[in-house]
Each structure stands twice: as C-alpha cells, then as structure tokens.
Structure prediction request, 376 residues.
Amino acid sequence: MIKLTTAGESHGFGLYAIMEGLPSNLKIDTEEIDKYLALRQSGYGRGARQKIEKDKVQILSGMRNGLTLGSPLAFTIKNADYANWEAYMSPVSADTSVRRLTKVRPGHADLTGLFKFDQTDARNILERASARETAVRVAAGTVSRILLRELGVEIAGYVRSVEQISDEKEYTFEELKDVKNYDLFMPDAGIREAAKKRIDEIAAAKDTAGGIAEIRVKGLKRGFGSCMTYAEKLDARLAGAVMSVQAVKGVEIGLGFSAAKHAGSLVHDEIYYDDGKFYHKTNRAGGIEGGMSNGEEIVLRAAMKPIPTLMRGLNTVDFQTKDACRAATERSDVCAICAFEVIIESVVALTLAEVISARLGGDNLREWKTRYELLP
Ligand code: EPS
Prediction:
C-alpha cells in the first residue's frame, strides 16, 4: 500500500520523504516533479522567500535509470535558505539564543505548540508547522499523478476565488488545462485581473488574503473507497488529506455546503441506462456516492484562510515577558492561493494513489494496469 512519510524543517537542511508501496517499472520524470515544484512556488502574491528557493527534487533511492524498483522511494528537496540559517538551525551545534520567536503569531501553531512541546522559543514549533513542508508533498503528489496517468486518471484544478473576488462559472475539465500558464490560476481574464488588483490592495495594507481552489479528477472508475467501513470512505479520505494541508479551513465535495440549502430533487443525480451503460446527467455529488467513486468527475473545493503572518502584525502577548505586543513578522506571502491549488491537487493525487493501491495491491505496474482494466 502506498504510504508517505515526510520530515524536514523550513530553515533546516532540507525536506525529506519516503514513499512506500509504489509499483515497480513506473517511469518517473524528475523534470515533471520539478515543474510542479516550480508551480508551487509561483503565483501572484508570493513573498521574498521564493526568490531564495528554487526547488528541485533529488531522488535518493527506490529508482534505477528512471524506473521505480518497488522499493521505498526516498527523495529530498534542499532548503537554499539553510546557508543563511545553519548557525541557528544546525541539528548538532546551533546558537539558539538568537532568532528566537516569542511574540507568538495568532493563527499559527506557535502558542499551543509551545505548551504542547514544552518549549520557550516558537522557532522550535514553526519550523515544522511551516507550509514549506508542502514542497515535499507536491513531489510525492506528482509521482502519484504520474502513476494515476498510467491508469487513465487525470487531475486538473484552478483558483475559484481570492478573498471576495469569485468566479462562479462551471468549467469543463478541458477548459482548465491551460490555467497554470497564468500568474494567477483563474481562467477568466477579467476576474483574474480584478483578483490581482485586490491582492495589490491587500499587500499595500500589509494584510493577507485567502481563497478557494477547485480540483477535478477525470477518468477514475467507480468503486474506489468503500461504503463498508467509515475509515475507507473516499470522501472522508480526501477531506482528511486536504484538511491536513496548512491553512485549510473547509472542504466541499460536489455541491458541498449548498446541498444543504436545496430540496433533494435538486441535489441528487438521477440514474439512466442507455447503450449498455448506467449514467447520470448531472454531477452534483461531485463523483462520490456512498463513500465510493461513482465514475463521474470528482469535484472538490478547498478553502484557504489568509496567511496568518501579517506584515503589520496582529495583537498578541510575548510568551516570555507576558507583555502585550504585535506579533512577529520577518517576511510573508500576501496570497499563496496558486501554491495552495498545486498542493491540494497533489494531496488529492496522493490520496487517490493510496486508495487505488489498497484496492489493486499490485507489485509492478503491469499488475496494476491489468487489474485496473478488469474493473467494470
Ligand atoms: C512560511 C513562511 C515563509 C514562506 C514559507 C512558509 O517562509 P519564511 O519564514 O522563510 O519567509 O515563504 O513557505 C516556503 C518557504 C515555501 O516554500 O512554501 C510559513 O510560516 O509557513
């Protein structure tokens, strides 16, 4: 079964991952991984740290001459910023008296983490809580994406809203294919420019913005996930995985929250039969019924809260002196919604790869493909 473990601090030596359960003979193009790593660093509204980091994956084991071996795939992404931080972050000899963070930031893990891990310097909390960790999940997600593609399953996504600037149109999967060519992943030029203007205004006010990303999965056969045990339900798996991404405050599948506002006749997808096939004319369920994929496109939306490090600071209390103060800031992204979109796509891809591996259980790619093709 596919399983991912990650490690690494934001200003430590690097980020690490071990991905178990991949089939052998999967061709992995590291350039494709680097492409998604670059996309994760792109987007209107990102901050100065991204000028320092140029993320590249380095595969350390589990692969030979571009093909997986079936052994754990280990890989790393270096933190270029470590060169500036080694004196304070070295695992063996660091000066922990400087770069301390005690002006705990509302909305971050800082304050609760200090109590939970019995620390006095929130640096020891934020380094791991940081969304820098998502780089390695994007790498694992891209490996998963490559695996899914072998089965004919494809993933796309876009930014549906930035703060209150929202695109309520419904796009086809094909219409979303080029959206990542824009500096803000919104398909509609007018809405995109309005959102960028809003990001500029928010930056000028030294504030931050969140938004909503929508992810689509096309080509997944029916029956992934299970109605038989709650832990196996596909929607539960996806929602849990998406919620594990830093800054997520909400997940919707299909109509999501708006399903609660309509009568059943406007919410459920009626079933038809023609030409030897069962089908729906609508996809309000977002491709999942009874905790299982139903063969329609999976439609998932995730809401990102505004990044909690504000350049103008928020009111807080210094953990050490107990004096009221403004929260710590060094630098911050204003809006990381494009990064967020890439991360959510990656997490969805990884979760689907896990769920598919649980059902198919093959050791090599040929087995995976043969078993998948046999499914109705
Ligand atoms: C982050 C704070 C910023 C972001 C970082 C996540 O880093 P720094 O504190 O070094 O300025 O740039 O994100 C990344 C480095 C990344 O690659 O996404 C945070 O506090 O979560």
